[in-house]
Write a structure and sequence with these properties.
The chain is an alpha/beta fold and 248 residues long. α3 crosses α4. Strands 1-2-4-3-5-6-7-8 form an eight-stranded mixed sheet, sandwiched between helices. The two termini are 18 Å apart. It is built from six helices and eight strands, in the order βββαβααβαββαβα.
Amino acid sequence: MTAAGDVTYVVDGMTMVGYLARPDGAGPWPAVLIGHDGVGLDGYQRSRADILAEHGYVAFAMDYHGGQTYFGRPEAMLARVMPLLDDPARMLAIGKKALDVLLAAPDVDHKRLAALGFGAGGRIVLELARVGAPFAALAAIHPGLPRDAHPEDWAGVGGAVLLCTGSEDPICTPAQLLTFGTALQGAGVDWRVTVLGGAQHAFWAVEASPEGDAGGPMATVPGVGYHAVQSRRGWQAVLELLRDAMPS
């Protein structure tokens, strides 16, 4: 049994509507902070939080769009996301506030903490790790990456890092992840890259209509698509990382 519900909080001049899921019963439980992709906090990230709760983690899916999602509105999404990716201070403020919400939840084990981020949400959790957030593990799924990454900038990363993308992703390519991994290597970080053959950007996202009905069309850009097999494999890589870094 698990318990879950929305949590509102204010950051970046907006009222955010995050989603907290937790195991039933007394903790302390390890905890995972989830950062959604550019589309917004949709059913997928909520479902991942629920599944993590079933696995024995307190999971908080942050919001950085003020309760909005951008299905069918790619230009509006980019207008929100691109300035954010160019502003590390804003990303840090958003991430730190969400992390505070997670750490304030009952029965959270502050010594067993991890992060999971998709797209721009992956960049937000990476920024938190860069400044020393005590993540034992961090999984960044086709993350937004800094234009220039230097080892000295990532020396504060203390946990294991998983970087994951599809082989056919034109937005976050395998080569970009390996280049970023070189900076992590120089910083002495425990890192790995998983490349999922044939998968495109947002390979994990079941196509949805603006109403969120599975199977409907989703307005998108070239190079974005769902891949059922690699979605499952990518999720298993995340769970393996969490189990390895935060054994029960």
